[in-house]
Amino acid sequence: MKRFNVLAITIIPTFLILLYAHFGTSIANNFGYYILSEREKIIDLNISIQSEQDNKKVFWWLADSLNMVSIINKSPKDLIIKLKMNIQKNPCGYIENFQITKDKKVLIDSKRYNLEDDISVEFQIKIERFRTANIIVESKNNIRCGIDNGDRRKFIAKLSNLTWEVTNEKNNREQVEF
Questions:
Q1: Taking all residues of the chain, what is their mean pLDDT, rounded to a whole number?
Q2: What's the distance, Cα to Cα, between the start and end of the chain in Å?
Q3: Using an 8 Å Cβ cutoff, are 131 and 73 in contact?
Q4: pTM reported for the whole predicted model
Q5: For the chain, which residues make up each domain, given as ranges?
Q6: 134 near 68, Cβ under 8 Å?
Q7: Among 145, 33, 160, which Cα is nearest to 84's?
Q8: For 112-140, how does the pLDDT look when each residue is reduced to its tens digit (9 = 90+)?
Q9: Domain covering 32-177, topology
Q10: Terminus of the chain with fewer CB atoms < 10 Å: N or C?
Q11: Nearest to 109 by CA among 117, 119, 118, 100
Q12: How far apart are CA 16 and CA 28, in angstroms?
């Protein structure tokens, strides 16, 4: 019995530290919401990018790595999600050309916008019951914007004011924003 206690005291905390070290960033960017139901969590939102804050406002740097927003529908019903987000200039003062896709289908192409100014984009997707929708934001050219502070990322743009509205088949609506 003493041997088990010693192992439990040393191995379990080490395992938990390693688990957090490996999954810490994705755990920190997992948001669950009790939408359209007071008893069950029907939407999970996972963002592959670590969030940051500026004046208590949450934002994400879209960079040369995978920029993915996964929305998980835990409901037994299909849902319509209307997403809105602001795309702002990167640290170099401009927005790279980008596309927002779902299942390789282009939802937003930056060529339709004036990239001299911050832009607001809006699109709608349907997520079937118990399914996941992966929305990817990627650059369409060689990313040039890097900064000289040891950060190796190449920046596309800044994502902020992420909001979404959920509608179920009864046309009940709920809006969530950051």
A1: 78
A2: 49
A3: yes
A4: 0.73
A5: 32-177
A6: yes
A7: 160
A8: 998 889 999 999 999 999 999 999 999 98
A9: Jelly Rolls (2.60.120)
A10: N
A11: 100
A12: 15
